[in-house]
Amino acid sequence: MTIDRRTFGKLVAATAGASAISMPFVRTASADEVAKLGVLLPLSGPLASLGNDVMRGFELAKNLVNEEGGVFGKPAELVVVDVPSSTEATSQATRLITSERVKVIMGSYASSISFAASQVAERNKVIYFEQGAVANDITSRGFKHLFRFIYPASELGGGAAKFMLETVAPQLGIENSALKVALLYEDSSYGTAVGESARAVLAEAGVNVVDATSYSYKTTDLSSMVQRYKQLQPDVLIVCQYTPDGILFWRQAREAGLAVKAMIGNGGAHNVNEFAEALGDDVNGIFNAGTSVYIDKDGLVPETAALFERFHTEHEKRYDGRKPSAHTGMGFNAMWTVLKDILPAAGSMDTQAIRDAALALDKPVGSTIVGWGVKFDPETQNNTRAFPTYDQWQGKTIKTVAPERFAIAEVKAIPLPTWGKRGDI
Amino acid sequence: MEILIQLVLSGILLGGVYALAALGLNLIFGVAKIINFAHGEFLMLGMYAGFWLMTLTGINPYYGAPLIAVAFFILGALFYTGVMRFTIYKPELTQVFVTLGLSIALQNLALMFWQADYRTIQTMPPGYASLMVGNINLPTDRVIAFGFAVAILTAIIVFLKTTFTGRAIEAVSQDLMSARLMGISPQKIFLLTFGLGIAITGVAGGVLIPSFYAFPSVGSFFVLVAFVVVVLGGLGSVTGTIVGGLTLGIIETLVGYFTPDLKEATHFVLLILLLAVRPHGLLGIKGAEKETLK
Predict the structure, then answer these.
(1) Segment A360-383, tens digit of pLDDT
(2) Burial A69-93 (b: 16+ CB within 10 A, else e)
(3) Which of A361, B194, A397 is nearest to B202 (CA)?
(4) CA atoms within 13 A on the CB side of A126
């Protein structure tokens, strides 16, 4: 297309006119101070199940806050975009920022999605609160606008390994040097980071890591891994899996009669109800390192204990009797903290004010419904008061067994009884 | 030695699953020369059919397979008359986009009706999860699925080779013009083929649900494998599907055992090699990959 001088003039005039019209609109939008938050989650596609769990948590927190008068005296608003995988993360984050003009984005649970989307937020100076993605490299990029509520993967996988060394190994009565451990993890940034941090802790403790394997969570078969373990005969499995592959693996392990003395998961599959529904009694005895909403509420500060109760009753009431998962709890926690603590302290939707308020926030351990406190590290902007809790499936429900402050049950069933005899754990 | 036997047997069973998942895709391609990108979603619907059948009526999908077959035959016929009929002599791109669009629509409808939850059923009582032959163990659900694969495949081959209608289907698949001159109505044959192809896919989903799980985008887990199986075995060749499935199953299990990290890569390495060396597949008819309906 060639543009002659007259057309060019018209174009310039039209553009100037358009921006003149749009400018006052922009100004009123930012002066209005409505807490309008972007939500970026996988709500369809293979990661949708947990994505929707988080969404229910976000929604519940927003609704409870709005019923109490909202933020800045007005109801808070959520603009939700669906990001099935990391491929769509950049474009949808851009859409939230440029066409929806949000100043804050809440994300995203899957590490690979969070990694890509937070990059766009940082570039546009939009605050990104990550509630549940653990990969270390998300916060190791020196971003100034990214805050993470959850602990990094190194504390998760490393924590699982320490839990195994401190709690499981002594009950097995096996010395570290004689203990055989196999690591199995899905190969996206979540599984890899967790697997590698577990391996580092185990190597330092002198444990014999007999196998460390990754695979794609989209796999339709894990029987070859199960056969591998039947030959290698590890005492303990430390795994990091999403729900579908987690179900597939444990089912195929049952079919092949794989005997291990303990298995420890790292969030993903191993703290959601669908995992228990798919496996029935055979879920019992499995450990999980991660986050739980089934902790002892006496470990929480009184005000939070009341909120904890309210979270559980309101969730079941508003979502057809459904029990909340850990992911719902983390979503709720992040949204509640942002709407109740950070935004009111900031006093406006100004980026710098929100950032200052977030950095100034200082809540002790036990002051959120998942047990954590909130204190963001000024360097990494990770929440320094988040920590994994350790749970065990007992009677087909997940129960926190450590740390002691939040435990509601004792560790049982080490070593694991044989298949078919796990009903009474 | 024992472990090798175990791995090959596991591979054969997995191959049966793959063949079952791919058969409907290949049947439709062989006759109507349409690559159905919504194939995975029909498999997903089959899985939900198995799940709901068991959950709502208590009928085990293994016994309920005929019901699923009938329902999915009707679904396939509707799919043809309502959608595919209009694309049949159109350029390939039209067919690709119509089926791809349908795939996205079906995924999102499933998400709307049944949410993103993973759903599965348990058909075997505890303790019967696998059959033991010496030290070799064979998962019961997989053995049954393999049985279904063999039965369906045999039935299809017998039907195509011995009945009048079956031979008419073969005729259309081989030479549309001559078939027409012999008085065969291609429209009826296409209708029948879509019905059959989708019915097989529905049954496949139904018998796979006890060893897998249904959720709206589960089709995408299987559809890539199905494409590899079809290309491997030979486009349009029904026997090729089982050969392709078994080859892939065995190779994947062996690679998965010895070098687990490369397990997922096997599909595609195999596909690239085959396309370079033998583009019509192991048992396919030379030139089938270039065919479209004119």
Answers:
(1) 999 999 999 999 999 999 999 999
(2) ebbbeeebbbbebbbbbbebbeebb
(3) B194
(4) 27
pTM of the predicted model as reported, rounded to 2 decimal places = 0.85
In Å, what is the CA distance from A272 to each residue of A53, A276, A392, A411?
Answer: 10, 7, 12, 19
Interface test with B, best of A41, A53, A224 (most B CBs within 10 A): A224
**What is the sign, positive or negative, of the torsion defined by CA atoms of A256, A261, A267, A270?**
positive
> B132: helix, coil or strand?
strand
Peptide bond into A24 cis (omega under 30): no
d(CA B232, CA B227): 8
Are the beta carbons of B215 and A46 separated by less than 8 Å? yes
Q: ipTM for the complex?
A: 0.87
A43 at B interface, C-beta within 8 A: yes
A282 half-sphere exposure, CB direction, 13 A CA radius: 25
Most A-contacting residue of B132, B220, B221 (CB-CB within 10 A), to test interface:
B221
Q: Is residue B175 part of a domain?
A: yes
B60 assigned to some structural domain: yes
Question: How far off is chain A from B117, nearest CA to CA, in Å?
Answer: 5
Q: Is the CB of residue A281 less than 8 Å away from at least one CB of chain B?
A: yes
CB contact under 8 A, B14 and A52: no
Identify which of A313, A240, A317, A323 has the alpha carbon closest to the alpha carbon of residue A277: A323
Asked if residue B17 is part of any domain, the answer here is: yes
- Looking at the structure of chain B, the number of domains it has is 1
Give A187's contacts in chain B (Cβ within 8 Å): 261
pLDDT tens digits for range A295-352: 998 999 999 999 999 999 999 999 999 999 999 999 999 999 999 999 999 999 999 9
Looking at beta carbons, which residues of chain B come within 8 Å of A84? 217
Residue B101 is assigned to a structural domain of this protein: yes
Q: Which domain holds residue B151?
A: 2-112+134-227
Place of tokens 């959950």: B55
- For residue A221, list chain B residues with Cβ-Cβ distance below 8 A: 14, 17, 252-253, 256
